[in-house]
Amino acid sequence: MTFWLLLILGLITYIILQRSVANITRTPVWLLWLVMMTPAVVLIIWAEITPDDGAVPAWGAITLMTGCFILYLWLLYQGRPPTDAPPAATAADVPSPLSTLKQQLRPIAPAEENQLRDCFNWSVYALHQLEYRPQAVICRGQLRTNPDRAYRTIRDNIEKKFGDRFLVVLQEGENRKPLFVIAPNPQKETNTRPEEPTDHPAIAFGLFLITLFTSTTVGVELAGIESDRWQADPSLLLQGLPYALSLLGVLGIRELGRYAIARRHHLETSLPYFIPFPFFLGTLGAFLRLRSPIPNRKVLFDSSIIGPLLTFLVSFPLLLWGLSHSQLVPATDTSGLLNFEELIPTFSLLLSLCSGLLLPGSLEPSQAIALHPIAIVGYLGLILSAFTLMPIGRLDGGQMVHAMFGRRMAVAIGQISRLLMLLLAVIHPELFLWAILLFLIPLRDAPALNDVSELDNRRDILGLVSLFLLAFILLPVPQMLTRVL
To answer: If we measure between CA atoms, which residue out of 250, 207, 215, 193 comes closest to residue 381?
Structure first.
């Protein structure tokens, strides 16, 4: 089991590194991955060769993790692009998805430049100057009306003169003044590509069936049935269906909700796809690919809040039902927040409240909880909701605070959240890996096309409630409340 957990951890770490830092450093991803995996490998080997007292000294573990993290940052810094590279638009000026386009902006002839200037009406946006960048044209000026009206007017004017050749982006510049960015339209290139194989519903359905089987086999093992027994009697697989259907239900409803929001806002997206895995949980989750740019911050908020919200709404009743059917067991040295057979619930205020009400005595230091398979699904959904709600970068929570407070404020909130999570990991060392993964995620996410218009009050309130829910899940329970429960 240790080997497979290490394999899953290595795979997730490599994917995160490949998608987050591969485009900002020339240091090989495999080298960064090796540095990040060193603490986990060393600690596991230490535990294996010292089975009697396999506890690693605290100072040794902290030194190892800190040293590897510093080495990771140094390698990342050493691999930065050379300073004499061709000038490019800053992250505050050009959206990150557009900055990775392979094609360069086609030269604008003098006649086209005049046409571009004519697209900016003085009554909505007084154009002052054009700045040509390798991948975009920055249009600086003065906003003379509300952002929604200005964006629609300028976008429609550019589409009339240039067709679908360009994307029109409205966002804040360095001085917080709104500016327009005219960049190549990636959708134009995408529309000329042949249909991808994953666009076929048969593939999505096939992956779902495979994931249903792998999750069912894991559910059978959680029910206490060994693999040789259900292989000899396949009818025993039915006992693993409650776990499998609950897990796939949580993941499926989450992705279907994101798919429905995308279709509602006329965004091009793939179907939801499950990832089967024959070990651990039976699946590595589900995903869908969003191919269209986000038109405005309201759509950005809707597409980011729907996943964590649905995950929590589906997982919480499963957690309550599963806790009521779980059992108390004596706590041992191996008990913790990641041990489903000996769970310690006091790390989470929400989990502690539920456990104290449904399992009296579960908050005593000498007691742990052996989770029912359905409770495991609800518990995993709770963890998934908390992780995706973290207000950092391209996580759902990061996009949500971006939509609520703006891109600049979202970066500051993300940095503070990283540090708070690191402090929380000091109290609960099991969260240290979570905290490190958050430092690997870039703070900036992709802006919306109209990234200036603000949200309405209803969305702001829903976002604040979601952040409160995140704190309710992650904050440890006070000792005074533990005595009361």
So the answer is: 250
Indicate if 316 and 389 belong to the same structural domain: yes
Domain-embedded: residue 86? no
- Asked if residue 101 and residue 69 are part of one domain, the reply reads no
Q: Whole domain around residue 115: which residue ranges?
A: 96-190
Cα torsion 212, 217, 218, 224 to 10°: value is 140
Determine, yes or no, domain membership for 54.
Answer: yes
Q: Are 302 and 261 in contact (CB under 8 A)?
A: yes
58 and 144 housed in the same domain:
no
Q: Answer yes or no: do 107 and 47 share one domain.
A: no
Domain boundary among 161, 190, 219: 190
* Domain membership flag for residue 311: yes
Residue 278 sits in the same domain as residue 410:
no
> 30-70 pLDDT, tens per residue?
777 788 778 777 777 666 666 555 455 656 666 777 777 77
Q: List the structure tokens of 298.
A: 């309201």
User: What is the tens place of the pLDDT at every residue in 343-366?
Assistant: 888 888 899 889 888 988 888 888
Q: Are residues 459 and 386 in the same domain?
A: yes
The answer to whether the CB of 295 falls within 8 A of the CB of 449 is: yes
Instruction: Report the interhelical angle of 58-78 vs 29-49 (nearest 10°).
Output: 170
